[in-house]
């Protein structure tokens, strides 16, 4: 690894005013929708037995996308599907369109079912997947959406789809800190990195900062002391600075906070842009702020 | 691990930084804001101090990186990362003339309306794509973006037209391609010029291989040359990332224009690697010396027999794995005879023949790598490589300065995606 690879990160303006927030979505709701879109990508990846590198790449492209596009314009379901399709090509493990569409159809149906159970018809019973009809339009609609989504991701990211994954860096850093013999440290830190894929951090901070955050959370959780008083701070070894590391930790920990049922339910109806538009109509943004 | 060791190296910012500040503060004023900026958590975007970024951003980046001992060179500051920028419209460019058309699409010469720069626009063929955006085009764009090198054609951006099927790669415009040049030149390149060109080619190939990119279509028509004696490797349309070991499904044999194709691909290997590019480099080297392609075969069988005739048939020492290759059984070996390279190239030095024979080595394991070839004695013996500035200049056919009909070389192999999905139907 001789080259310094400069992957794109959101600029300050893009962070301050994301397109979705400009359209009236609240910061918290955008965060929830990003996380839910990434969960769908993850679930699709598991069902397709896709390699984790492709799934992680897809999630990072997905996170970048929402710094240049509003969720009012494209649905998180479609873009997630497009991102996974694109990332699979980028990681040289392409998947069939049909398989991806079938899997997303299942996930969307399941989402709709969960939503129905939690809101309108609580006695609907167990989820049962209804395969798409041979002559129906579902397949072609999803296929069109997939092709458009893939192209839109490429176009709106300016074809800068280079992604650097954090796992190799984590191994190196744990080695430097002499923590590789602790299996609990490795797997917990690895887990934090994976969970962080549901947050925008990979589009906001360089990899060393994110990896340092994962190590910080891990060592704090397991009570492992590391040199942390200036001028001897371990994260400085990795060119991370404290405020950024702390901020990444915040993004990750927010994923685990208990959520009221209402918050869990509202994203289920907003997987498509139609749902987002409906929500925006029902909850018009207060322009005064 | 203690961080307050004074000689603890670049990864200990705490101590190094303060010492460096004290050392340099009085002498070099303009550098100070750069050092300061790094300490802040999120510098505002306009704090990119003009003093540290003078004219060309690229050069100054490298320069200022060297002046930053406190930061690991592997971790550039946050502000060095590009922002997320959507593609611009193709209407930012004014079309001038078309340069060439191939299986991959059309190449235009165009002018950037903002800066006036002359660029090459390569339009990708995207009609009738059954699998979304073609993986080959993705590989080409990614390969170009990750191989920024003096001797690799520079990609500027990717722009889009009105519809989703219009995508153009914007590259630096280079006046010549080496193939056209070789046909119109009155005399072949001098030895000193060949050495310069080969060094440039080898450093580009070494750079790509180091970044895990195989070019897979090196040939003289894909080597562009400007009027300042610099060649640039172009057309990464068949390039792809490779791994060790090679990924699932192996690699396709449908690569490399026939005349430049390595014997292991001809014989059906699916796990080839960087050595295939080195064989092509050998063919290019020979072509520069001969002023015409080395193996002008019409088909694969003819090519194999030409190779065997020139280099002698492979033996168990020159190519131990030969018999295990899928198509080896179908080829009849000629009677054993030694390599004819010396007779074919009577005018180059022993070192030159040695380099050529190391590039045209049968066994991919024994074939010289780009890194090794750069250190070959051929380049350090007289006549020395000529300085690029001393090269002559020629009228540029691509810029429409003079039209010439080059001889025809066979086209690149059809661009079937090398995954097995193509054979499967995407219909219900």
Automatic annotation (TrEMBL), chain A:
<dbReference type="GO" id="GO:0006357">
    <property type="term" value="P:regulation of transcription by RNA polymerase II"/>
</dbReference>
<dbReference type="InterPro" id="IPR006671">
    <property type="entry name" value="Cyclin_N"/>
</dbReference>
<dbReference type="InterPro" id="IPR043198">
    <property type="entry name" value="Cyclin/Ssn8"/>
</dbReference>
<dbReference type="Pfam" id="PF00134">
    <property type="entry name" value="Cyclin_N"/>
</dbReference>
<dbReference type="InterPro" id="IPR036915">
    <property type="entry name" value="Cyclin-like_sf"/>
</dbReference>
<dbReference type="GO" id="GO:0016538">
    <property type="term" value="F:cyclin-dependent protein serine/threonine kinase regulator activity"/>
</dbReference>
<protein>
    <submittedName>
        <fullName>Cyclin-like protein</fullName>
    </submittedName>
</protein>
<feature type="domain" description="Cyclin N-terminal">
    <location>
        <begin position="26"/>
        <end position="161"/>
    </location>
</feature>
TrEMBL record, chain B:
<protein>
    <recommendedName>
        <fullName>cyclin-dependent kinase</fullName>
        <ecNumber>2.7.11.22</ecNumber>
    </recommendedName>
</protein>
<feature type="compositionally biased region" description="Basic and acidic residues">
    <location>
        <begin position="417"/>
        <end position="428"/>
    </location>
</feature>
<dbReference type="InterPro" id="IPR045267">
    <property type="entry name" value="CDK11/PITSLRE_STKc"/>
</dbReference>
<dbReference type="InterPro" id="IPR000719">
    <property type="entry name" value="Prot_kinase_dom"/>
</dbReference>
<keyword id="KW-0418">Kinase</keyword>
<keyword id="KW-0067">ATP-binding</keyword>
<dbReference type="Pfam" id="PF00069">
    <property type="entry name" value="Pkinase"/>
</dbReference>
<feature type="domain" description="Protein kinase">
    <location>
        <begin position="93"/>
        <end position="379"/>
    </location>
</feature>
<dbReference type="GO" id="GO:0005524">
    <property type="term" value="F:ATP binding"/>
</dbReference>
<dbReference type="InterPro" id="IPR050108">
    <property type="entry name" value="CDK"/>
</dbReference>
<dbReference type="InterPro" id="IPR008271">
    <property type="entry name" value="Ser/Thr_kinase_AS"/>
</dbReference>
<keyword id="KW-0723">Serine/threonine-protein kinase</keyword>
<feature type="region of interest" description="Disordered">
    <location>
        <begin position="386"/>
        <end position="428"/>
    </location>
</feature>
<keyword id="KW-0808">Transferase</keyword>
<keyword id="KW-0547">Nucleotide-binding</keyword>
<dbReference type="GO" id="GO:0004693">
    <property type="term" value="F:cyclin-dependent protein serine/threonine kinase activity"/>
</dbReference>
<dbReference type="InterPro" id="IPR011009">
    <property type="entry name" value="Kinase-like_dom_sf"/>
</dbReference>
<dbReference type="GO" id="GO:0005634">
    <property type="term" value="C:nucleus"/>
</dbReference>
<comment type="similarity">
    <text>Belongs to the protein kinase superfamily. CMGC Ser/Thr protein kinase family. CDC2/CDKX subfamily.</text>
</comment>
<dbReference type="GO" id="GO:0007346">
    <property type="term" value="P:regulation of mitotic cell cycle"/>
</dbReference>
<feature type="region of interest" description="Disordered">
    <location>
        <begin position="1"/>
        <end position="78"/>
    </location>
</feature>
């Amino acid at each position: 690894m001789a080259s310094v690879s400069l992957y794109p990160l959101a600029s300050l303006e893009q962070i301050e005013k994301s397109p979705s927030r400009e359209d009236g979505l609240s910061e918290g709701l955008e965060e929830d929708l990003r996380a839910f879109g990434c969960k769908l990508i993850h679930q699709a990846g598991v069902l397709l037995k896709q390699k984790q590198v492709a799934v992680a790449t897809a999630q990072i492209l997905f996170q970048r996308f929402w710094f240049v596009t509003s969720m009012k314009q494209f649905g998180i379901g479609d873009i997630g599907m497009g991102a996974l399709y694109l990332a699979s090509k980028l990681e040289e493990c392409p998947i069939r369109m049909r398989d991806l569409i079938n899997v997303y159809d299942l996930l969307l149906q399941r989402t709709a079912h969960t939503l129905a159970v939690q809101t309108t018809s609580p006695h609907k019973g167990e989820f049962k997947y209804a395969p798409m009809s041979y002559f129906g339009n579902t397949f072609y609609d999803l296929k069109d959406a997939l092709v458009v989504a893939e192209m839109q991701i490429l176009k709106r990211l300016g074809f800068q789809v280079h992604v650097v994954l954090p796992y190799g860096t984590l191994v190196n850093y744990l080695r430097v800190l002499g923590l590789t013999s602790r299996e609990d440290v490795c797997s917990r830190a690895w887990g934090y990195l994976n969970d962080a894929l549901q947050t925008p951090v990979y589009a906001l901070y360089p990899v060393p900062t994110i990896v340092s955050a994962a190590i910080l959370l891990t060592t704090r959780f397991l009570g492992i002391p590391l040199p942390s008083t200036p001028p001897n701070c371990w994260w400085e070894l990795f060119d991370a600075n404290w405020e950024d590391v702390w901020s990444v930790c915040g993004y990750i920990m927010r994923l685990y906070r208990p959520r009221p049922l209402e918050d869990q339910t509202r994203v289920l109806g907003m997987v498509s842009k139609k749902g987002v538009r409906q929500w925006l109509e029902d909850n018009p943004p207060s322009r005064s702020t | 691990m203690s961080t307050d060791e004074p000689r603890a190296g670049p990864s200990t910012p705490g101590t190094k930084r303060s010492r460096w500040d004290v050392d340099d503060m009085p002498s070099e004023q303009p550098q100070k804001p750069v050092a300061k900026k790094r300490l802040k958590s999120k510098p505002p975007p306009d704090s990119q101090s003009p003093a540290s970024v003078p004219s060309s951003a690229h050069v100054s980046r490298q320069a200022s990186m060297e002046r930053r001992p406190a930061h690991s060179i592997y971790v550039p500051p946050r502000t060095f990362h590009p922002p997320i920028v959507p593609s611009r419209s193709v209407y930012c460019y004014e079309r001038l003339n078309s340069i060439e058309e191939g299986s991959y699409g059309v190449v235009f010469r165009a002018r950037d309306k903002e800066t006036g720069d002359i660029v090459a626009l390569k339009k990708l063929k995207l009609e009738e794509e059954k699998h979304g955006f073609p993986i080959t085009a993705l590989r080409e764009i990614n390969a170009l973006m990750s191989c920024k090198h003096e001797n690799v054609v520079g990609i500027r951006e990717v722009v889009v037209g009105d519809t989703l099927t219009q995508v153009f790669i914007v590259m630096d415009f280079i006046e010549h391609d080496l193939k056209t040049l070789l046909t119109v030149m009155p005399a072949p390149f001098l030895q000193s010029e060949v050495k310069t060109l080969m060094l440039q080619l080898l450093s580009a190939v070494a750079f790509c291989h180091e970044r895990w990119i195989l070019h897979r279509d090196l040939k003289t028509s894909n080597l562009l040359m400007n009027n300042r004696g610099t060649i640039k490797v172009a057309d990464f349309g068949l390039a792809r990332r490779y791994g060790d070991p090679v990924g699932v499904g192996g690699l396709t044999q449908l690569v490399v224009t026939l005349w430049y194709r390595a014997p292991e691909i001809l014989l059906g290997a699916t796990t080839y690697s960087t050595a295939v590019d080195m064989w092509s480099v050998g063919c290019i080297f020979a072509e520069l010396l001969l002023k015409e392609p080395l193996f002008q075969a019409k088909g694969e069988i003819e090519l194999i027999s030409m190779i065997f005739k020139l280099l002698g048939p492979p033996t168990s020492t020159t190519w131990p794995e030969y018999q295990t290759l899928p198509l080896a059984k179908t080829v009849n070996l000629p009677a054993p005879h030694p390599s004819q390279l010396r007779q074919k190239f009577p005018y180059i030095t022993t070192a030159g023949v040695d380099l050529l024979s190391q590039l045209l080595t049968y066994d991919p394991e024994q074939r010289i790598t780009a890194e090794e070839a750069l250190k070959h004695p051929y380049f350090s013996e007289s006549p020395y490589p000529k300085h690029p500035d001393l090269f002559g200049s020629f009228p540029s056919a691509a810029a429409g300065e003079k039209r010439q009909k080059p001889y025809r070389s066979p086209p690149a192999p059809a661009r079937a995606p090398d995954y097995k999905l193509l054979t499967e139907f995407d219909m219900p």
